[in-house]
Amino acid sequence: MKEGKPETANGNNGWVPVTAESSRPMRIALLAGPMLPVPPVAYGGTERVVAALATELGKRGHDVTVYASGDSTVDARLRPVVERALWRTGYRGDVSAHMLRAVARCWAEADRFDIVHSHVESFGFPFARHAPVPVVTTLHGRLDVAGMPGLLDEFTDIPLVAISESQKRWAPDANWVGVVHNGLPLEHMPTSRDIDDSLLFVGRIAPEKGVADSIELARRVDIPLKIVAKVHDPSEIALHEQLVAPAVATGDVEFLGELPPSARDPLYASVRATLMRGAWPEPFGLVAIESLATGTPVIARRAGALPEIVEHGIDGYIVDDLDEAEHAVRLLDRLARRVIRRRAITRFSASRMADGYLAAYRSVLRRRQDRVVADEETPLRSLPAEPLSPQRANNGRDPRAPAGRSRRDGAEQEVEHGAA
Fold first, then answer.
1. Total structural domains in the chain?
2. Which range marks the domain in which residue 249 is found?
3. Quick one: 134 and 111 in the same domain?
4. pLDDT band at 371; cut points 50, 70, 90
5. Is residue 277 domain-shared with residue 330, that is, in the same domain?
6. Checking DSSP bridges between strand 411-414 and strand 405-408, what pairing results, if any?
7. Of 236, 296, 363, 365, which alpha carbon lies 20 to 30 A from 261's?
8. pLDDT tens digits for 211-231?
9. Are 111 and 131 in contact (CB under 8 A)?
10. 314 and 208: one domain?
């Protein structure tokens, strides 16, 4: 983690903004939310992606600044938007004001960069429209709920990146500059030859994540289910008490809570399959690519972006109901874990993600450059002559006023003789 501010374009280091055709490194700002550090200690999706992107861009020589919580350990220059990540302090309230504060902090320094990459959802839309430099926005959530369709119709001018074709399809008229699947440094994920006769669920204890279906599937096939999940919010606590705790009591489930990657990743590698049975249409699915990178297949519902990640019969199985999921468990031995791992590392690497975003950055820079050229080549229209009033003909002084005084809008103002 680096300290300090980057120089402005007029700073003393001679920096000038890059153009789309330039091959020299860019000054890039990555704007993250204040809820979790970058990277997160345990649970957290967007923050992990931002950390991976910052590291990869830095490896390629770009000057990267990350706007995130002050306890972040990202491998880049850090500009804190709050002293400590909100959720690590126990804060569970509305984050809107904190998100806007993060946007404001980055906006105030935007002219220090060639491009800004926002990861704060719609909170950054006005910033993207009015910033002095191009702002690319990656959307990590759903686009069909919570007023997003109308908001996207309003902001058709700002450059957007989708994280899956499934997500993108709900806003066909938006200003898309790319679809970039999330990537992580998956080459470091562990593998195992010793496979436990168990299944795995990783995520949140929430109805839309398919917790109930996963528990029922484990009971049907008589294979224990390990659950790695956060239980923070009141709704998560209630569902845990209703569904998970009774299954733990009967021996169907082993609840492990929220684990850091050092403990979670070996679990991926040691189970027969990872279950993603939620009906919620995932805009992406980091759990899927992490599991696949260890060689462990994924049994996923046909929803959201999961069919883009899991190729049926190769990386796992795409299923529509519990009966199909039960059949998929019986077919797991047909899959080659070595092939699953190799494909995942190739398709969802941090390097490939960085390639996609750099292409998007240069596309946006090229559009901005073309607009500037077009504006310079457009001749100024001659304006019709406007008759001068006596006051304007007399340099703004009312000829009726005594010398040394000017009357404007009925008010007298002192005028110093000889002033420019």
1. 2
2. 186-347
3. yes
4. confident
5. yes
6. antiparallel
7. 236
8. 999 999 999 999 999 999 988
9. no
10. yes
Q: How far apart are CA 330 and CA 408, in angstroms?
A: 88
- In the block, tokens 């390990």 appear at 226
Instruction: Give the model confidence (pLDDT) of 57-78 as tens digits.
Output: 999 999 999 999 999 999 999 9
CATH of the domain at 154: 3.40.50.2000
Compute φ and ψ for 323, nearest 5 degrees.
Answer: -65, -45
Question: What is the percent of the chain with per-residue pLDDT over 90, rounded to a whole number?
Answer: 76
Q: Tell me, yes or no, whether 154 and 292 share the same domain.
A: no
- 145: its two tokens: 């709920």
Question: Are 174 and 160 contacting, i.e. CB atoms less than 8 angstroms apart?
Answer: yes
As a whole number of angstroms, the distance between CA 159 and CA 176 comes to: 6
